[in-house]
């Protein structure tokens, strides 16, 4: 196959056949079967869903010199959905409620669907990055020009965001180290039972002392990077709450809460001007994310404190969860201080094949 012979709208599909972007809806067996099942009132099979998604992935392309380039549809959805949500929410209060509710329902419906059909999807990580970029862009180029934000306040917010980025990067780097360690362990233990390693069905890797897979960070969380993960959550919450407070006190009528600390009071006039409305909606979105991240952060702090992983917590009965897991046997619990020192000082070489106790 010679790519130089392709025009900008042609490509070689998954069957190594030459195809054209304009024929993206032609000869799609999976689409025909899915539509036929819907018309007949039958359930679309999982194999049909997977085949349809693979076909969409293969045919979703953009014109490019030397042949059309493939674009992952699940990765571009957040880039379309998030700006649309913020723009629609800027129309009026009811549009804000409608857009936020619609997106929340969409995320709850698509979560399990994507995890089952495209386990290694980048949708949620792209959502995280897109949210961060959009919110920071709105703050710097729309809120700052209102001339209500001090230079020190902007520097502090930028420092919090930088702290989040550093912790996120470290979390992913350490997750990659564990992935290579899991691969090395499996290769050196062929035919033997590997202890302490858990297979992640999402990223399809073996991870030592796995806690859970975070789709929003696109990596596995274990004791090796759990401390960085918790720190990333803390910086993200602090940045989101601080930026939302600065934004709301700039676009709404503020009142003095304590000395120089201001809180928003009356925001009834924000929808009369597009810039004010967009800033207000972005602040509400920041608060919503901060609330969700706070729940995750508190959950992580609680589980580390009692010496239990999220994987173990999810397996508990309702009664055990009501008892906060204190009535169950926690084999990894070493006491409050030792539990925290374990994740703070955890080293990947503790699980290296040459150092691991047999």
Automatic annotation (TrEMBL):
It is a multi-pass membrane protein. The keyword Acyltransferase applies. It comes from the Eukaryota. GO terms for cellular component: membrane. One of its GO terms (molecular function) is protein-cysteine S-palmitoyltransferase activity. The chain crosses the membrane at residues 71-88, 94-115, 124-147, 153-171, 227-244, 283-306. Its EC number is 2.3.1.225. Pfam families: DHHC. It is found in: Membrane. Residues 199-314 form the Palmitoyltransferase DHHC domain. It catalyses: L-cysteinyl-[protein] + hexadecanoyl-CoA = S-hexadecanoyl-L-cysteinyl-[protein] + CoA. Keywords: Acyltransferase, Membrane, Transferase, Transmembrane, Transmembrane helix. The DHHC domain is required for palmitoyltransferase activity. Belongs to the DHHC palmitoyltransferase family. This is Palmitoyltransferase. It comes from Sitophilus oryzae.
